[in-house]
C-alpha cells in the first residue's frame, strides 16, 4: 500500500542513523511538463521507497563526520550547498554504515511520488493547489530555509517535495560529444534537479515544472536532495 512510512534505524560509527522512508507502490507514469507540453513516453515504475523528508543537516553530519556545507545552519533544516558529486560521497558512506543500498531517486520516481503516486489527486503542487499549504517559496519563506516537515504532506505522507530546497535526481541530462583530431571524447554529463526552493516563486515549485540541468560539481544554497531505496 502506498504511503506506508518506515523508520530505518542503523548503528554506525557509534551513532544511531534514522532514515524515514515512505513506500511508493509502482505504476505507469507519464511526465508532463506543462510549460512546453512535452509528453515523454510513459514509464513503468516498480515499487520503491523515497525519503519522507529531504536529507537533513543532522543526518548529513552523522554520516560525513560532522562536516556541513550548508549556508543556513540547523539540525532539522535540509542540507544544502551540496553538489551531485557530494551526494554520491554521502550515499556511499551511508550505505557502508547501514549495509543498505540508498541512492538518489530517478526523475520519474521523484515526480510520481511528488504527484501522490496512485493516491494522486492532480494537485498543482505536491499535496495541494495552495502553495502555502505545502511549500516554502520566495513568497512565504522570509528568505531562508525552514525545518523539514513544517508544511503539510502530500497524499503519500511525503513532505517538502516542492520548495525549501531543489532536489538532485540520479539521471544524466545528456552527453556531449565532440571531434578533435579524429578522436572522440565525452565530457562529464550534466545532472538534473527540480522541485523549486525558498528562493524561487511558486510557479517554479509546481510538480510539472521542468527539471534544470547543470554540472554535477555545482553547489548552491538552495540545492539539496532526498534518498530513495529499491524494494
Could you characterize the architecture of this molecule?
The chain is built from 4 helices and 12 strands. It has helices at residues 57-63, 84-98, 107-114, 131-134; strands at residues 5-12, 15-24, 28-29, 43-44, 48-51, 166-174, 177-180, 183-186, 190-194, 212-214, 223-224, 228-230. The chain has one domain (5-230): paralog of FGE (formylglycine-generating enzyme). The strands form 4 sheets. It has a 4-stranded antiparallel sheet. With 231 residues, the protein is α+β, with helices and mostly antiparallel strands.
Total domain units: 1
Q: What percentage of amino acids are in beta strands? A: 15-25%
- The CATH H-level superfamily is paralog of FGE (formylglycine-generating enzyme)
Oligomer: single chain
Unreliable sequence segments: 175-186
Radius of gyration: 17 Å
End-to-end gap: 13 Å
What's the rounded overall pLDDT mean? 88
Counted beta strands: 12
CATH topology, by name, is paralog of FGE (formylglycine-generating enzyme)
CATH architecture: Alpha-Beta Complex
Helix content: 10-25%
Q: SSE string, helix = H, strand = E?
A: EEEEEHHHHEEEEEEE
Main β-sheet, spatial strand arrangement: 1-2-5-12
Overall 3D geometry? globular
Secondary-structure topology with pairs:
Blueprint: E1 5-12, E2 15-24, E3 28-29, E4 43-44, E5 48-51, H1 57-63, H2 84-98, H3 107-114, H4 131-134, E6 166-174, E7 177-180, E8 183-186, E9 190-194, E10 212-214, E11 223-224, E12 228-230
Parallel strand pairs: 6-11
Antiparallel strand pairs: 1-2, 2-5, 3-4, 5-12, 6-9, 7-8, 9-10
Amino acid at each position: 500500500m502506498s504511503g506506508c512510512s518506515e523508520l530505518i534505524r542503523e548503528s554506525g560509527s557509534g551513532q544511531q542513523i534514522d532514515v524515514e522512508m515512505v513506500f511508493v507502490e509502482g505504476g505507469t507514469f507519464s511526465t508532463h511538463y506543462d510549460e512546453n507540453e512535452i509528453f515523454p513516453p510513459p514509464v513503468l515504475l516498480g515499487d520503491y521507497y523515497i525519503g519522507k523528508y529531504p536529507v537533513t543537516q543532522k543526518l548529513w553530519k552523522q554520516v560525513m563526520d560532522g562536516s556541513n556545507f550548508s549556508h543556513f545552519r540547523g539540525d532539522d533544516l535540509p542540507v544544502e550547498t551540496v553538489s551531485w558529486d557530494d551526494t554520491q560521497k554521502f550515499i556511499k558512506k551511508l550505505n557502508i554504515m547501514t549495509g543498505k543500498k540508498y541512492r538518489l531517486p530517478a526523475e520519474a520516481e521523484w515526480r510520481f511520488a511528488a504527484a501522490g503516486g496512485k493516491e494522486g489527486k492532480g494537485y498543482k503542487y505536491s499535496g495541494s493547489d495552495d502553495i502555502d499549504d505545502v511549500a516554502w517559496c520566495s513568497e512565504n519563506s522570509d528568505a531562508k530555509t525552514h525545518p523539514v516537515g513544517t508544511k503539510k504532506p502530500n497524499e503519500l505522507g511525503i513532505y517538502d517535495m516542492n520548495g525549501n530546497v531543489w532536489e538532485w535526481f540520479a539521471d544524466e541530462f545528456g552527453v556531449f560529444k565532440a571531434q578533435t583530431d579524429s578522436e572522440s571524447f565525452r565530457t562529464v554529463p550534466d545532472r538534473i534537479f527540480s522541485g523549486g526552493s525558498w528562493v524561487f516563486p511558486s510557479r517554479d515549485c509546481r510538480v510539472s515544472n521542468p527539471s534544470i540541468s547543470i554540472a554535477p560539481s555545482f553547489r548552491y544554497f538552495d540545492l539539496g536532495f532526498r534518498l530513495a531505496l529499491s524494494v
